[in-house]
């Protein structure tokens, strides 16, 4: 028999827990939005912990390389305008040169909050990857007696 007053199919406890966790995470994420300096200090701390971890284990250079490329890609998106003025010049619209043209502020392609969130997630994921040896790949063969990380030919 079905329960009286049930609105839909029963929800599993795992789905309920995931929904509750997602709501709580979003709540704290929204509360952190106005605290720009504190957010970036936390990201700087996560980056320092990651760098110390990579330095301590003397490995995971491919992960660090991928992380650096990803951060550079995010930085390009953060520094680029949402609308490319070079492409607008080809369409006939140009930069405001007359008094009648309207000033348009610089709007980023990637907003600061999304930039911060993506970098913080990237450092956390990269840090977690350092605990699994399957991600520790080298460009050459490392000698077993060497602990300095030098490669043999």
TrEMBL record:
<feature type="transmembrane region" description="Helical">
    <location>
        <begin position="115"/>
        <end position="135"/>
    </location>
</feature>
<comment type="similarity">
    <text>Belongs to the RER1 family.</text>
</comment>
<keyword id="KW-1133">Transmembrane helix</keyword>
<feature type="transmembrane region" description="Helical">
    <location>
        <begin position="59"/>
        <end position="79"/>
    </location>
</feature>
<keyword id="KW-0472">Membrane</keyword>
<protein>
    <submittedName>
        <fullName>Uncharacterized protein</fullName>
    </submittedName>
</protein>
<feature type="transmembrane region" description="Helical">
    <location>
        <begin position="36"/>
        <end position="52"/>
    </location>
</feature>
<dbReference type="Pfam" id="PF03248">
    <property type="entry name" value="Rer1"/>
</dbReference>
<keyword id="KW-0812">Transmembrane</keyword>
<dbReference type="InterPro" id="IPR004932">
    <property type="entry name" value="Rer1"/>
</dbReference>
């Amino acid at each position: 028999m079905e329960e009286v007053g049930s609105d839909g199919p029963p929800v599993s406890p795992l789905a309920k827990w995931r929904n509750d966790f997602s709501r709580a995470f979003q709540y704290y994420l929204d509360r952190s939005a106005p605290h720009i300096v504190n957010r970036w200090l936390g990201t700087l701390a996560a980056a320092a912990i990651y760098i110390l971890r990579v330095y301590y284990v003397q490995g995971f250079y491919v992960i660090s390389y991928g992380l650096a490329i990803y951060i550079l890609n995010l930085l390009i998106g953060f520094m680029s305008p949402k609308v490319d003025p070079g492409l607008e010049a080809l369409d006939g619209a140009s930069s405001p040169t007359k008094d009648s043209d309207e000033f348009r502020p610089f709007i980023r392609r990637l907003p600061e909050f999304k930039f911060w969130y993506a970098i913080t997630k990237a450092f956390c994921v990269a840090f977690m990857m350092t605990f699994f040896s399957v991600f520790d790949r080298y460009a050459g063969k490392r000698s077993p007696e060497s602990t300095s990380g030098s490669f043999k030919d």
